[in-house]
Design a protein that fits this description.
48% strand; Jelly Rolls; globular; 3-stranded antiparallel beta sheet; 5-stranded antiparallel beta sheet; 1 helix
């Protein structure tokens, strides 16, 4: 038996380890995680998701639904802190190009039990204002 090591330095998310219960991914910057190109939020309806900022800067964007749209909030992530995204909470990340996140979630998390929601022009303006 030996210890295995997993790394990833490419663009976007890669699941680097997976077993029958949970998966570990490394998420790096990609264009759609830039404040100028972000366009949607996602939610996983059946599972929590955990993020840990390892390098760079990252802002967690999350939102609860209201009658007239989304109530957008942001959190500037602190290095090595664990952030738990509960099931069904809309979220995304805004990252600097040097950012690296560790992601942990259930192995069966997929688009079959998740959703994407495009941000409206008004929501994008509010989000960019919050980021200033």
């Amino acid at each position: 038996m030996k210890i295995l090591e997993y790394q990833y330095d490419g663009e976007a998310l890669k699941r680097v380890y997976e077993n029958t219960q949970w998966t570990v991914g490394i998420k790096n910057w990609k264009p759609s995680n830039d404040i100028e190109q972000i366009g949607n939020l996602e939610r996983h309806n059946c599972t929590d998701e955990l993020f840990v900022l390892l390098e760079g800067c990252c802002t967690l964007v999350y939102a609860n639904e209201k009658e007239n749209g989304l109530d957008l909030e942001i959190i500037d992530m602190k290095p090595y802190a664990v952030y738990q995204i509960p099931p069904s909470l809309w979220h995304n990340t805004i990252m600097t190009k040097d950012a690296k996140l560790l992601l942990i979630e259930n192995s069966d998390t997929s688009m079959e039990n998740s959703e994407l929601r495009d941000l409206s022009e008004e929501e994008l303006i509010r989000l960019k204002d919050q980021m200033k």
